[in-house]
Amino acid sequence: MDTACPSRFGTTIHVTALDGIVNVNSLFTLAVFVGLAWKPTDPANSLVDDPNCQAGSSIAEDLIAFHVYSFSCFLFSSLIALGLKQAIRIARNSTEAHRTLFTLDMCHINRTALRFGYLVSAAGSVCGCGFLMMALVNVVQIKLGTLACGSSHTYGAVIPLHIKKEAAAGTIVTGFGQVECVAKGY
């Protein structure tokens, strides 16, 4: 318990944010499994005519590795989020009397631990998205040719993917800061 600052702390906002993390991670985990079900070494899967631009076995191996790394990051992030959510529910349902303001339940939670948990969970999701993006880059290289060949189609697929991933990661980090500001009452 946070004894230094016994102020009210809105937990409903945090539980909703944690639900969002778990739901998004579940969707990305589904994408990882769909990607793992695809057979990248099938020669019919490539649109490349030049044999020098065809992806080698190392790119296919990296594709599988990045899918596994992505899955482990999403699983880690979801487990941290579910653990934090359970801790909030336990604190909310403890035998100590807690206050209710309108329909928002209030309880005392160690803010530092909660913020650290959010940070770790968000970092896991961002890392999972990064690995998933690298797996998709490998899919593009298998389908359209390696980046070393300089195909405009390959770069046309990879560059927007990278830009959108960075924008999404920024949104996750910015959203994390907004949840903390709302909880503090700013």
From TrEMBL:
The chain crosses the membrane at residues 12-38, 64-84, 116-137. It comes from the Eukaryota. The lineage of its organism: Eukaryota, Viridiplantae, Streptophyta, Embryophyta, Tracheophyta. This is Uncharacterized protein. It comes from Escallonia herrerae. Keywords: Membrane, Transmembrane, Transmembrane helix.
